[in-house]
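Would you mind giving me a polypeptide sequence along with per-residue structure tokens?
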Amino acid sequence: MAGAESLGRARGSAWTWRPVARDALLARAFHSCTELQGRFYLVGGLLEGGARVPSSDTVMFDPTRGQAVRLPVRDSPLRSHHDAAPVGGRWLCVVGGWDGSRRLATVAALDTERGLWEVWTANPGNCPPAGLSSHTCTRLSDRELRVSGREGGTRTQRRYGSIYTLKLDPSTRTYCYEEEGYHTVSRSGHCAALLPTAGPHPGHQLLLFGGCNSVEPEVAGQWSHGKIKEEPPLAPRLMEQLARLVSSGQGLQQGPQSLRHHSCSVVGPFAVLFGGETLTRARDTICNDLYIYDTRKSPPLWLHFPCTDRTLKRVGHRTCLWNDQLYLVGGFGEDGKTASPQVCILELFV
């Protein structure tokens, strides 16, 4: 751990990922990693590069103890390139993804109190996507998610991305997709961030980053003040550190170009993006750069913080915010094949 810290400082970097745990159970990519009641739940993913059939593992990581365990639950779904969201402080809802043979739009839910996987059923009037993978699923409230991304396979996909509101009812174990009346650029492997908007009319925007050749984020939803009741995790220390990093003058004022399968976490008014795969190069495509999108002023500002440490390259990884720390979990490394068994936290030297 000391080596990672000194490496970041020695090379003049303002940041690094510091390892805090290591377990072979965590070595996977294109999985989901969701914080629920102070635990990280990892579902599925690919265990090695080139694998066609995803894992059906459900792994719980305790960040306090630094320990990971495979949960002995039946009917854990085969999934990769899916997304997941906590519901009701009890359920982990897995939405869509690849099951080894097709792209799905179904909802499976882990009841963390009973330790059981449940297959929820669609309501009458459900208008589901054709099939989802490498999409995003963002909580708008405890029973409403916003799903965005390209539908179908490479032969059937549309030239635009559809946006759906996914309504969930834990009491009846049911769900219902409703397609919104507007579209986005066709994206896959992007990320989404629900961020506050600055200016005379505050509110929230759901922004999509990457997954196509566009540099600028795209709006996938906009709400006036008071409409979004979702309370993001509090991270006052990390938010202050990010503000100091942004104002340090060490970052380049440029956003990510043609990036996919990166991670994104919201920390107050900041979206923190890391790693991913660039579509602009034929070789050395996996990245290790940190980007910060600062919404405190209008227009928002991009800051790019490059990295020279090739061991930090990641694709198909996840970041989770918990207890005022940003955690990095899993992902393939520089070769695009070997999954990282490490859990790291973002360390800023400002």
Observations:
- The helical segments are 2-10, 236-246.
- The chain has two helices and 26 strands.
- The radius of gyration is 19 Å.
